[in-house]
Amino acid sequence: MRAIGRIFAALIGFILAVIAAALFMLVASVGFEPADPADSFWFWGNFGVGAAVTASYLGAMALAPWAVVIVVTEAFRLRSALVYLVAGGVLGILPVLGIAPLMRPLDNDPRNIAILIAAGFVGGFVYWLMAGRMAGIDGVFLTGSRGPKDER
User: Which pLDDT score is estimated for 95?
Assistant: First the structure.
């Protein structure tokens, strides 16, 4: 049952991390308030639609690499925030290196590169907050034991 709980925690953590990274990217790119207060209705409408599209796009791009990170961190019970921050930063830099298949090559604009890497950090941190702090199933993968009850 614990394994099923960890799968759900990882799934929910991934979804929330993608949403946080998408919101960060939008706020860093277009700001958090409209230039003209009269356009606030259209700004927030476009912001909401843009957040949904960006989150779905980021989720599609990050699913396979982040699944590898999840499996490794769960198997080896890596619970350090630094692991998830580095993994998020690496995922953020993949489009800059031209490795992300769904992303067009960037024009090496330092601002866009910084936004992508920082969004990766934000996503990695949010995942750590939601699921990474409790990574691992108390040694089931590594030792085969189920915990203190087996030591009777």
Answer: 80
Find, among 19, 30, 25, the residue nearest to 113 by Cα: 25
Query: Positive or negative CA dihedral for 116, 122, 126, 127?
Result: positive
Q: In the chain, what are the domain boundaries? A: 2-31+63-145
Q: How many residues does the chain have?
A: 152
| Nearest to 133, CA basis, from 84, 62, 87, 66 | 84
Cβ 65 vs Cβ 14: under 8 Å: no
Cα dihedral 65, 124, 126, 98 in deg (nearest 10)? -70
Tokens at residue 88, please? 């998020």
Tens of pLDDT, residues 39-57: 888 889 999 999 999 999 9
- Residue with the larger pLDDT of the pair 108 and 124: 124
C-alpha count within 13 angstroms, C-beta hemisphere, residue 99: 9
